[in-house]
Task: structure prediction
Amino acid sequence: MLTRRVIPCLDVRDGRVVKGVRFASLRDAGDPVACAVEYERQGADELVILDVSATPEGRATALDTVAAVRAVLSIPLTVGGGVRAVRDAEALLGAGADKVAINTAAVDRPEILGELAARVGVQCVVLAVDAARQGQGQGQGWEVITRSGANRTGIDAVAWIRRAVGLGAGEILLTSWDRDGTREGYDLALLGAASAAVAAPVIASGGADHAGHMIDAMRAGADAVLAASIFHDGDLTVGDVKLEMARAGLEVRL
Result:
């Protein structure tokens, strides 16, 4: 049985951790270096940093923030935001990232996934997918949204995930736009559909409020769970979540 991962997420803007609801109404949530130290102490398996203003502002991810976090971190680090070319990914890896997440640029030019995989390896390429629900009932589906939620593409999210893995994405970071920051739980139907579509690992993101939500996500097909609000606000520690997962029969690194 594979060990399930618990991954805190640091959404960063102007060198500070921020958190909002559906990518809006951002509030300050602390210093990224201090957060990284604390989450590793709590037992985080990995850490994700997403520069939430890089793509809307048309710039690259702040490399100094990545380097500062790497200096205090020994667990794997994934970084995304503002990755538009292979050179951007290489700069992040050079600054200390282990994996690079790409979203908008891959939707705009899917071929970049193959270019990245050829240059840095499939294991370093994470496709970040922000998906918004469409329709109701049996006819529902999800569309890909980009540019921090500002652009609805009309692209079917599950079909895009399947295509992206074929092109070179080694892992999927799947965020439900509808659930992001709401604490209403992950979109289990979305997770189930995506996990069934590809063999690549799927990280659940968007909506966690307690360990039960994370256990539900794992049972729906997620290989890992990502959360921000519950950790930033001190409601739960990573260790708390892992203990509940272990009690539910999931294999975790304690």
Notes: The mean pLDDT is 91. Residues 13 and 79 are 13 Å apart (CA to CA). Residues 5-247 form a domain with the TIM Barrel fold (CATH 3.20.20.70).
